[in-house]
Amino acid sequence: MNKKVRVRFAPSPTGPLHIGGVRTALYNYLFAKQNNGDFILRIEDTDSARFVPGAEEYIVESLAWLGISPDEGVGTAFDKLHAPYRQSERKEIYKKYVDELLEKGLAYYAFDTPQELDRKRGEIANFQYDASTRMQMQNSLTLSEEEVNERIHSGDVYVVRIKIEPNIDITVNDLIRDEVVINSSILDDKVLYKSVDGLPTYHLANVVDDYLMEISHVIRGEEWLPSSPLHVLLYRYLGWEDAMPKFAHLPLLLKPDGNGKLSKRDGDRLGFPVFPLEWEDPATNVVSTGYRESGYFPEAVVNFLALLGWNPGTEQEIFSMQELINLFSLDRVSKRGAKFDYEKGKWFNHKYLQVKPIEELTDIFQHILVEKDIFEDSGKVRKIVELVRDRADFVNDLWEKSSYFFEAPDSYDEKTVRKRWKEDTPAQMKELKELLSSIDDFSSQNTETKVKQWIEQKGYNLGGVMNALRLSLVGAPKGVHLFDITEIIGKNETLSRIERAVDLINN
Fold first, then answer.
1. Which DSSP string corresponds to 163-221?
2. Quick one: DSSP state of residue 251?
3. 334/330 Cα distance (integer angstroms)
4. Which CA distances in Å does 162 have to 39, 143, 182, 189, 190?
5. What's the CA angle centered on 45, arms 41 and 48, to 5 degrees?
6. Rounded distance, CA 375 to CA 389, Å?
7. To which H or E segment does residue 453 belong?
8. Which residue has the higher pLDDT, 238 or 265?
């Protein structure tokens, strides 16, 4: 009988969730849902020195916003069999396995101080704590049992290190990278437990938790691939090798330009977010923008991230969450890093904006208008949104694309004035104002017909009149169809803007 698919996303609460971490969570979620499995959120907070207040809540809120909802774990109705889901609440569980490894002689106490370790690094080039150096150090392999017990009982700070024998080939079977073989001689005797806070390190805690939580697949970033042989050894040392999960190490998200892993600095430099939500650093109060606050739809972010490292095998680019669940497979995940094309992210958001229900966009835009002390009828706002949304990538863009509907220009583009406002333009605009004041049906189509007939009868230049009228109404050579503008702002406002332009530009 096949083991039930159970995957976990296990971030550390050391700051805001990076967009690369979001993609890892997404791939875990898609894999679990496709296989009728469970997606678990676990918080790996064993590094107490790096804990940041608010980070855990940020992680939970980010996943909720994106629709990547855990079935089990932190922020959910948990399963008593596998709880708790914060590693800091599982201290006693880990201590049992630390003691087991010590009893088996597969781990040992080490009392070396930071100063002693630094001294060794100065004496030995590329020093690492392993079979070649451990007999020179202060540990239970070099000290008598009596001295070890005395140091522990007297409160000396110590760590427990795994004991790795050299020249053993360790095989990691990876679902993305196939078979990876690493010789144990390049591994150091990693710290598994710290007496100073009574907590294990990531390496032991994650193996114990994955085993006890019955995790079937560990899907994580490739930066953890070098640690995988150590984890395989821990499964072996603890007698759990037959229950070891399958590993899949995801490719990195790379800088949009140049080489290397995507960082917050790249986002700051090129002007795009690298966090799902806005984050205020509690230590510095520095605020970093997020995708949500930048106007991205969560569906667009999910769609964008899904295709950074995974290929559906078709030309299709727009996918609903359910379509992603149906199609996702680890065998179509790339081994190579994926360039983070933030312009493509904007494109995805533009596509989702175009198909959003107009009522939803109208409601969002009305909230933006209220913040600007503009209170308009929803019917008018709806018409404006319908006219300008093709030009917008984000809902926030709707104001920049449509502000002239709500506010008359108080200045006029100088370049356009020089090019389009001729000597005879004021007289033509005054005539046009008289014509417009006589039109009762001010609909776009009727007004356009009347104005074009008048231009033809007068023998005026069509482009000259239209460009001057647009400058009068908008203040710049931009905007939607000219007579859609006149219909929505209405006759009185149209006439007022023409009169104002003639007065201000001439003066």
1. ---SS-EEEEEETTTEEEEEEGGG----EEEETTTTEE-HHHHHHHHHHHTT--EEEEE
2. P
3. 9
4. 30, 17, 17, 5, 6
5. 165
6. 20
7. helix 444-458
8. 238
Q: Supply the Cα-derived Rg of the chain in whole angstroms.
A: 32
Q: Which amino acid is at 505?
A: I
The set of residues, in sequence order, having a beta carbon less than 8 Å from that of 327 and lying 6+ positions away, is: 312, 319
What is the Cα 131 distance to its own chain's centre?
42
Q: Helical H runs in 200-357?
A: 202-212, 228-237, 264-270, 298-306, 321-327, 342-355
Q: What are residue 249's DSSP bridge partners?
A: 220
Which pair of structure tokens corresponds to residue 201? 């390190």
Q: Is 356 a catalytic residue?
A: no
Backbone torsion region of residue 348, taken as left when φ is above 0, otherwise alpha when ψ lies between -120 and 50, otherwise beta: alpha
CA atoms within 13 A on the CB side of 13: 24
Which helix (DSSP H) or strand (DSSP E) does residue 248 occupy? strand 246-250
150 close to 128: Cβ distance less than 8 angstroms: no
- Cα separation of 486 and 130, whole Å? 79
150's CB contacts (< 8 A; 6+ apart) are: none
Taking each helix axis as running N to C, give the angle between helix 19-34 and helix 55-66, from 0 to 180 degrees, rounded to the nearest 10: 50
Query: How far from chain centre, in Å, is Cα 224?
Result: 20
End-to-end Cα distance, the chain = 87
In angstroms, the CA 464 to CA 428 distance is 10
- Does the pLDDT value for residue 49 go beyond 80? no
Average pLDDT over residues 396-407: 94
- What SS3 state is found at 287? strand
What pLDDT digit, counting tens, does each position of 403-448 carry? 999 999 999 999 999 999 999 999 999 999 999 999 999 999 999 9
Q: In 3D, which of 431, 438, 413, 432 has the Cα closest to residue 504?
A: 413
The single residue listed with the structure tokens 């040392």 is 237
- Model pLDDT, residue 489: 96
Report the C-alpha gap between 210 and 373 in whole angstroms: 53
Residues in Cβ contact with 212 at an 8 Å cutoff, skipping those fewer than 6 apart: 82, 93
Q: Which two tokens stand for residue 498?
A: 């023409």
* 252 DSSP 8-state letter: P
Q: Which residues of 448-487 are buried (b: 16+ CB within 10 A; e: fewer)?
A: bebbeebbeeeeeeeebbbbbbbbbbbbeeebbebbbbbb
Among the listed residues 120, 264, 450, 452, the single catalytic one is 264
